[in-house]
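Course assignment 3, question 2. Fill in each field.
Student: A.L.
Task: Predict the tertiary structure for the chain below.
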Amino acid sequence: MLNRRLIRIKVFKALFAFENSGSDSAATAADMLARSCEKTLELYCFLLNISGSLVALAQEKIDAGLHKFHPSEEEAHPNYRFVNNRFAKLIDDDPEFGRFCQKHKLSWNEYDVFVKKLFASITASDYYKEYMAAEEDSFEADCQLFARIYEEEFEDNELLDSIFEDISLKRPWKEGLDDWSDELAFVLNVIISDLPAIARKKALIQQKVFKNEDDSLFAQTLLQESIAGYAEYSALISENLSNWDPDRLVSTDIALIVMGLAEAVSFPTIPVKVTINEYVEIAKYYSTPNSRIFVNGMLDKLIRAKVESGEIVKVDRGLRES
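Answer field:
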């Protein structure tokens, strides 16, 4: 599930928290990173799990209309297409998915206000009305509806952000590295990308925290080497501040540059330009307005020096593209 950019961000947060906590336990930092990575998979399942709450609400509204003393024509002859949505039923009937959500308390029961507002927005939309009126009745059409829901309804939603904040506050401190609001766009893209395959297979995609063992090892090694080299690399940064005001040096920049150096040294197949570009991009979102320039310049200078001294040696793709 996690891509390399998000892995780097999570390592950055774990490293920053470790260095600012005064802890001397690298194992604790590794545990925090592991939980942070797992939380992205939990967000994926949390978002999928809302389908059942939406369908249940739709059924409640149909039942309420049928029990009216004088129901309208629409209430007396309801359209059951949404409550019979096959994608929602697939989610509801998958025992492994259900156990995972139960174990990690990924329920929308506490957030009925959000579910009701979301349902009202969905049912007022043109894409929902087209779905309900369409002649095509297929698993693919049911999945396409939820693709539109995830595309249209979740981003830039203040109420959803408050739910994420509420969930974060309920976690133990060591699990608070991740911000679901930061990861929402990424996870929504994963879900939307998965839906066509779900429609074809008529089965859920069994997502894992890491796409492969290499990514898992990358996360662990990057954090370990960043912690191990922090003092050395921080000193190196200080020694090379000739064209930069020391008062403008911030701890987030130090952490990013330390990670960049640790990555350049420890991963010979990753091109230097990829490493530098990644940390410059992360600096745009997690540091000061001027950090992008500083991180780019300092990493370029320090990495070049280590390449020339033989401390950084690239092979294969790392050599070809550097």
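Instructor remarks: Residues 6 and 183 are 8 Å apart (CA to CA). The mean pLDDT is 92.
Grade: pending
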